[in-house]
Amino acid sequence: MEEKRFTDKVVLVTGTTSGIGRTTAAAFAREGARVVTAARREKLGESLVEEITEAGGDACFIKTDIRNPDDVDSLFNQIFERYDRLDIAFNNGGVSHPHIPTVAKTTVEEWDEVIETNARGTWLCMKHEINRMLKQGGGIIVNTSSILGFTADYGLSHYCASKHAILALTRTAALEYAPKNIRINAVCPGPIQTEILERAAKYIPNMYDMVIANTAMKRIGDTDEISGIVLWLCSDEASYMIGKEISVDGGQSI
Amino acid sequence: MNARRFDDKVVLVTGGNSGIGRATAIAFAAEGASVVIAARRENLGADVVDEITGRDGKAEFIRTDVTEPGQVEALFAAIGERYGRLNHAFNNAGTGVPLRRLANTTMEEWTAVMNTNLRGTWLCMKYEIPMIRKEGGGSIVNNSSVMGLRCNDGLSLYSASKHAILGLTRAAALEVAHRKVRVNAVCPGFVDTDMARKIFDHNPAAKDAILASVPLGRLAKPEEIAGAVLMLCSDAATFMTGKEIVIAGGQGIRP
Predict the structure, then answer these.
(1) Segment A115-137, tens digit of pLDDT
(2) A221 to B241: CB separation less than 8 angstroms, yes or no
(3) Which of A44, A171, A237, B215 could hold A178 in an S-S bridge, CB 3.0 to 4.6 Å?
(4) Full strand arrangement of the beta sheet holding B58-63
């Protein structure tokens, strides 16, 4: 018996062409949500919508680069035109650089790409989401931070900075909008089998072995081990939880 | 439509006769678990069992004072005898103390708080881990607190005990992860329970001060903690260990 906790809810998921975003969008759809998926790569975005629709779910794809403010404007205009509301948003779109440049070797282009996508993109989406949720009397937002949102690792200064920033945005906005019935939290994944990890493995010899040795559970997590947590945060069971993160990392950051 | 995530599971809830423990015991039973409620006060324990069995749930009360090692041993012997196994445990038994600054706290208060909150949690974990391992894995959830991460004027001993529970949670999680035993904690903020009411009775001004510090502007209902405990024991949390979920209505975000 599958529970349907999100029947008819309008849910936005960004970064849905792969990994955690893709799995989470499908999970929301299975539980009855009308899912708006937003990402850059059109083919992969459309293929997810097909998968969801074939399974009897409701989804659409809106090609969006969250680095581009006009794209983000257009994304929300289309959502409001089509559904006239937004109940839940999962701000998950994010990038990293697999070749792990140290602080001194990071270029301005690399810095801008990571910060503008992960931190500014999340902020910009939140801004649109919150304004809409204020009008309709409430809503729920979950942001994808990372265990690198409260720890650090070699060659990941821009990624760490962006993920730390996402936790700060999460906490500040949670405080600001608690009285307005908007609940905002974050999820902090550890090593999850995603494209970001696969790409990094090409640059770092023995990466999988090192990461696995470093987790208490001695394995990499699956994307559905994050989506379950995101859906829970968006459910009524989490009604007293705001401004916090749930770390899901197989015990890596203990 | 209620999912039943815990059919055929044997679940222990200590301090399951009131507050968060009671709500969690009821929630586990509603999803099919056989719930063992271990606590001190028999009449309250019987009430919870009646409430659960009245809704066709499965529960029994085993009178246990977690400060008494002999009683803890007997509790797990009884679980082994009656059910032959243990799948999940919520170590929740805990006690508060009147607000008192450190220099004025007494040895009696130290002993009461530490023996219940900390030693009781450790002792239960000691028995739970081998039993849950034998089943090929399961989940332990400890009840820490926002005071496991922060402190407050007049709550030194309580905070020390709740900080220590997070230490135990993290250390045990590392040790047993490869046995598929997951160990996590919940950190509730101020919850509408007997413990909170006692604090407010001693110090009525405290309630307003506390509510002013909670961005959501209200106390939590015990059910709002129970939901997190069940999630941590469910398949949604299979990659999560050694961590805490803070459910505090935004309390503790600001410095």
Answers:
(1) 999 999 999 999 999 999 999 99
(2) no
(3) B215
(4) B58-63, B34-39, B10-14, B88-91, B138-143, B181-188, B244-247
Is A201 part of any domain? Answer: no
- Among the residue ranges A3-7, B37-41, B227-231, the one predicted with the least confidence is A3-7
Q: Quote the percentage of chain A above a pLDDT of 70.
A: 99
Measure the CA–CA gap between B13 and B139, rounded to whole angstroms.
12
CB atoms within 10 A of CB A185: 25
pLDDT of A244 above 50: yes
Give A163-215 pLDDT, tens digit per residue.
999 999 999 999 999 999 999 999 999 999 999 899 988 888 899 999 999 99
Report the distance separating Cα A207 and Cα A253, nearest Å.
Answer: 17
CB-nearest partner of A216 from B227, B234, B242: B242
Name the fold adopted by B10-240. Answer: Rossmann fold (3.40.50)
Question: Which of A28, A235, A241, A252 to mutate: most B Cβ within 10 Å?
Answer: A241
Would you state the torsion angle of the CA atoms of residues A165, A170, A175, A177, taken in this order, to the nearest 10 degrees? 130
Does residue A112 belong to any structural domain of this protein? yes
User: pTM for the full model?
Assistant: 0.94
Say if A65 falls within a structural domain: yes
Specify the residue for token string 């470093």. A214
Task: Please give the radius of gyration of chain A, using alpha carbons only, rounded to the nearest integer.
Answer: 17
How many domains, in total, are found in chain A? 1
pLDDT tens digit sequence for B103-139: 999 999 999 999 999 999 999 999 999 999 999 999 9
Give domain limits for chain B: 10-240
State the CATH number of the domain containing residue A68: 3.40.50.720
Under 8 Å CB pairs connecting chains A and B tally to 123
Tokens representing residue A14 in the block: 């960004």
